[in-house]
Amino acid sequence: MMNMEEMKKSLESPPPVSFLSLPHDIVDNCLARIPRILRPALSLVSRSFRSIIASPELEVTRLRMGIVDDCLYVCLEMGDENNPNPRWFTLAPIPKRQKLLPILDSFPYQHPETSTIVSMGSKMYLIGGLVDEERSRRVLFLDCRSHQWFSLPDMIVPRDRPAAEVIDGKIYVIGGCSKDKNVEHWGEVYDPQTLTWEPFSPATLDLTNQKSVVQGRLVMGGRVYETNGLKLSLKREICLVETETNVWCEIYLCSGELRWRDAYVDLTWRSVEGLEKLSPYSFLVTVANSGGRRVTVWWKHCRYVEKWVTDIWCAEISFKRQGVRGLRGCVEWTKSVLRFDGRDCPKKFVLHSALVTH
């Protein structure tokens, strides 16, 4: 027969099992399911967690399980005199807790204006643009796993606002060079395997036919370009979205109102139904996840509470066709995603954006 002390010990709860005492493959499987954007916070738990999260085995497990994250990166002009370079952020895709998280690695050069952004795998490429009002040959990429910037070999030709897209694992860049460049400088292609740029002409690869989603225009990297011979003109305000009926529509923002038209047949602009009027200084950014059927709208709001503060707001909007000539918008969520002191943020504060899936 047990005495009272032995009975008390038998009724006590067994000590809790540590997560890290579980078999390694179970730990790896659990951590692989956690979005990358939450890893910095998780790495602060312990040195053991930090070691596992930094392990290449975790990426192998994610690849084997088919787990990918969609991360929206945006570059904002903050109007900060002490930090003249624009700042890059990633939008944390946490339901009801969306917020912008800064990329801590500082941009290594003077940030170019009017660059073109494309993404491939876990890398986001910043191509050309203007530096001190001069076209640039520079190309950099952000490793979206480590959030560090790296340089690529320079392009052959300086370019500003070129069209660019990843095709078959290579980066094709078209246009954006000065008028005195001949047809040989019309385009160039970067091969990540050889780390080299090679020129190509329209006769070598007719991208106008290959990438033309909108009749008479060139679509590359989710952007629409008017074509006039070899000259490209970016229609910056237009985004392309795909409806549930697999029909492409053009979306643009005009005086706080979202408007749309069928990209194939009916070129009449109409209002998107079901949405309130937006800020006249809003910005439209394509979100290519969910089948390319969503956009984000960005705007700022300044207010005085003991001092001036600025809120950056974001709303994600999806679309659904309503009959033949209707398109209805639905606000999936809307929230202030960033707040900072002051009110000097310029009207045009969203400079770049890219969706990286990895």
TrEMBL record:
Domain F-box, chain residue ranges per copy: 22-62
Highest taxon, organism lineage: Eukaryota
CDD domains linked to this entry: F-box_AtAFR-like
InterPro entries: F-box/kelch-repeat_ARATH (IPR050354), F-box_dom (IPR001810), Kelch-typ_b-propeller (IPR015915), Kelch_1 (IPR006652), Kelch_FKB95 (IPR057499)
Transmembrane segments: none
Protein name in UniProt: F-box domain-containing protein
Source organism of this protein record: Microthlaspi erraticum
Native organism taxonomy: Eukaryota, Viridiplantae, Streptophyta, Embryophyta, Tracheophyta
